[in-house]
Amino acid sequence: MAQLTLDRILHKYADAYAAAICGILVFFGWLCLNFNWIGFALLILTAAYVIGGYESTKEGLTTLWQEKELDVDLLMIVAALGAASLGLWRREYYLIIDGAVLILIFAISGALESFAMQRTERNIQSLMAVTPDTARLIHNGRESQIAIAKLQVGDVVLVKPGEMIPTDGIILEGQSTVNQAPITGESIPVDKALGDEVFAGTLNGNGVLQLRVHQPPESSLIQRVIRLVEQAQNQAPPSQQFVERFERGYAKVIVLLGLILGTLPPFVLGWDWETTIYRMLIFLVVASPCALMASIMPTLLSGIACGARQGILFKNGAQLEKIGRVRAIAFDKTGTLTTGQLEVTDIIPAAQYSTERLLELAAAIESGSEHPIGEAIIQAAHQANLSWQSATNIQAKTGQGIIGEVAGEKVTVGKAHSLTRDLFKIAIDPKLKQASHTLETAGKTVVWVSLAEETIGIIAVADTVKPEAARAISSLKQLGIEATTMLTGDNQSTAQSVAQALNLDRVDAQLLPEDKLNVIRHLQHKYQNVAMVGDGINDAPALAAANVGVAMGVAGTDVALESADIILMSDNLAKLSQAIQLGRRANRIVKQNIIFALSFICLLLVANLVGSINLPLGVIGHEGSTLLVTLNGLRLLK
């Protein structure tokens, strides 16, 4: 087992190890040359060429053989070997170091690319961990454990209190409250009864449920989420496709020009063959795209380091670029724009009762409940420094309310439609009905409290907006963000009230994960560059499909954190505008570097053509331009 784990680690980080070893060998080879230990230097640098250039050589030759295309990998190898050959030929061994540095740069680039590709596998593994591996199958009155994959349509599954629901199904027997926040993002657990659908990956409350499997496990909602994340991450963005086309086009042009420069001058310009080969090798060295590569990565890495100091974690440099180009941003509601925890917002007693008395009675009854609404009421009572008598004979009626006795009198806490049913038969105070309607219109959940068959008041609870959310939205609009949208699984009235409080441009409610993904794609069609900010499993497909996915570092689930490209470590939405500003600065510096690098390459190429530089000057110019654009990129560390 230990050997298997070691093999897996070595395979996973093979590119990173190769780049690190190559860098060490280049350093020691340079030291040996400085001490004039030529033999040792050549041996060490040969190892650096082989170890650092193996993957690039293999990829370049594979592309050439299978796709009949040239890419920058092969061009780099040719330039490096050309520099090494010329160094051996003229005994100018520092040229071998130059070629080794070229290989080292590409080895580091390959390691970063491999790391990015491994993220997809981790994302999918995190999603799969959401659901249990087995389910309780009920067959002929007997209960047995069975693998989820073996469930068939029509099977009956038992789910006990507090268990994760293993598969999508229809309730055949029982009733309970189900926490669907991981899938739909709803902040309040949903009451489920006979005939209702439940989803795999959601958490059962205090009821026992029997479910009929109505679709194959592979078609469950959570499995669809997994496939959507996988598809979204495997789709290369347009910018990446453009870079790949540019690299191959650039390589073709350089190789073609190199061949022309290595054959025509003796016939056209009257050069001798030694001069011709010499100029061709100088051309391959100065035309190598190291300065272009250094135009981007040091800048982005500096931006990543700067963001990390501010609590903004960029998973790769491409996302730092993309966040600077974002034109529209979509937000999840629960846990992102709101706290994700229910709080008592309004307490309205009947005329003859006080606010304290109403809250005391409600807290006494809810002390025997584990429902989030009950927990919010108890918390509010503690914050008000209230004390209450213990309730007796407490009975929780799932989906209806809770009943008990305080000092010998019956007290009931429940929703209005539940209190009027046969179970409770309590008349609703018409004076409180209008207040309840107003609160519900504002997106709040209202519970009624009765004492001895008389309603004595109402208590409203809600998932409250984060204090910094409004300022964050305002800052984004000042930066020129064209559209701010909220995506949520909550009901329309709740979503609308939050959107109005934050001055959002648009709100889409009652969405499943695939609905959120469709909204993101619609926004991309209209605004091209779209960011998605979320924290839950239900946000994973949208986070993966958006041009930039942003997750909450504290409240975010493992799946959201893996699917996202950027993580706000302190859950502070104000950091989002800082990330955008940092991205825009990075883009400006990258443009400056690219213009400088291309201009300098052109200058060196012209100087080589007219014979104004030798190989050492070409190397100095090549490495000097690389150093300058690198230093310019490091300005982002401030």
UniProtKB/TrEMBL annotation:
InterPro entries: ATPase_P-typ_cyto_dom_N, ATPase_P-typ_P_site, ATPase_P-typ_TM_dom_sf, ATPase_P-typ_transduc_dom_A_sf, ATPase_P-type_domA, Cation_Transport_ATPase, HAD-like_sf, HAD_sf. It is found in: Cell membrane. Pfam families: E1-E2_ATPase (PF00122), Hydrolase (PF00702). This is Zinc-transporting ATPase. It is an enzyme of class 3 (hydrolase). Its EC number is 3.6.3.-. The gene is zosA. Belongs to the cation transport ATPase (P-type) (TC 3.A.3) family. Type IB subfamily. Gene3D superfamilies: Calcium-transporting ATPase, cytoplasmic domain N, Calcium-transporting ATPase, cytoplasmic transduction domain A, HAD superfamily/HAD-like. It comes from Hyella patelloides LEGE 07179. The chain crosses the membrane at residues 37-54, 95-116, 250-271, 277-301, 594-613.
